[in-house]
Amino acid sequence: SYPLPTMDQELASALHQSLSSQGLVFRFGHKVANILKRDKDIVLHIHPSHEASLGASVGAPEIMTCDVVLV
Predict the structure, then answer these.
(1) CB atoms within 10 A of CB 32
(2) Measured CA distances, 11 to 20, 24, 31, 32 (Å)
(3) Does residue 65 sit in helix, strand or coil?
(4) CA distances (Å), 27 to each of 39, 46, 60, 61, in order?
(5) Could you read off the pLDDT of 14-51 as tens digits, one per residue?
(6) Rounded distance, CA 27 to CA 6, Å?
(7) Which of 21, 35, 64, 70 measures 20 to 30 Å from 49, CA to CA?
(8) Which residues, in sequence order, are CB contacts of 24 under 8 Å at separation 6+?
(9) pLDDT at 55 over 80
């Protein structure tokens, strides 16, 4: 998957690579279960979404600490 799925695939791939090289982390096929604000950080509890896990092994929930969240 790429950010902006309606965009031309070549451009979307270039955008994904550019943003990833700047430190952005993408978690496609996940849902946010909880967001906590702690001082200057944000703590996310994310889980694989039901649709993404159909027919695939279900991944474990993750806890991520970050400074900015784009949903």
Answers:
(1) 14
(2) 14, 17, 25, 27
(3) strand
(4) 24, 9, 13, 12
(5) 988 999 999 988 888 888 899 999 999 999 999 888 65
(6) 18
(7) 21
(8) none
(9) no
Q: Is the pTM of this model over 0.90?
A: no
**Tokens 């200057």 sit at which residue?**
40
Rounded CA separation 55/36 (Å): 31
Amino acid at 3: P
Q: How would DSSP label each residue in 6-39?
A: TS-HHHHHHHHHHHHHTT----TTEEEEEEEEET
1 DSSP 8-state letter: -
